[in-house]
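Per reviewer request, we include the raw input and output of the structure prediction for the construct analysed in the revised manuscript.
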Amino acid sequence: MLSECELHLKMCLKQAPLLVESKPTPENKQKVAKYLIKLHMQYCAILSQLNNHKEALEHAKYSAKYIHLGLEELVNVLEGLVKKRNASILESTAKTSLPILKALISKLVSEENKPIINETHKQPFNIKNLFGFFSCEETIVGLNVGNIMQLSPLTVMDSLSESERQFELTRESLLEKIALLAISYFCISTEKRFIAQAANNNGIKESEYFHGRALEIACQFLPSECPLVSHIYTTYQKHYSIVQRPIVHIQI
């Protein structure tokens, strides 16, 4: 069944770009990018279970790449809206969302394990305060690995409907983007750890680095009550805690 799932996911990845070609608008690109991120994450999970960790790692990197591009493109759109200085709801929402996304982009990491933006810039505000009060527990509980990576079949209306810009600026949409970024780094970390353990080399340090990035993003941007934060934290403690590391014996 895993091999069959792999085949279907491979075909989905081939068909997804056609959705962009049909409507090459910025809004539609954002919508399709989300599908591609989840598809690559699913493909990574399937390949990992098939013990094909090197290829799984490549798909985890693809998911991170698409979320990077999506965030950077959305920031460009928001900066254009803010410059208009209109009093509409869309421009007002852009002013609130832009600091969150800029702070998030400052945490992005390139494939060479280097920050994309210099981290000496300090944010003079509490990012979580910009999201406001979470009165709906369903929103928080839904932020877990299973729900975010889960794929649902696309309907004809999904492929034909036009996505609107304001939907990308809702609190739920921003939280989903943050969660996708954290999970993509978590997937990269997991596959690097499997590869390092099989090769018995020092690659475990790179794994810990990406897991630490995922944990930092989850703790800084997501509500502490959501299961995703707990999952990333407990797995970090399990695999990289100092207590778990072997004691090096030094002969005197």
